[in-house]
Amino acid sequence: MNDQLKKPNTYTSEFRESSIKLALESDQPIAQTTRDLGVNPNTIHTWINKYSKSKMAVTRTNEHIYDENKRLKKELAIMTQERDLLKKATVYFAKEIV
Asked: Where are the domains positioned within the chain?
């Protein structure tokens, strides 16, 4: 009866990160690592899945930022050329009026 009322464990983010690293980099099976750490195997697998998804999201975001940066640099070059052309046209027409 006390087992059913038992409060779930809460783990710090540092513990989660080190557990994931240990589980993925050690030579022993993940099940053995979870037993050594005293963590439910499903919990570790959930952490690993979340970790791998977040790593993929960061990679996609970085690629998106690179592409956007490239596009914006091209746009800036075009706008700069247009601005310079308009400045020259303004000077030319100002001379014609005077």
From this structure: 13-97
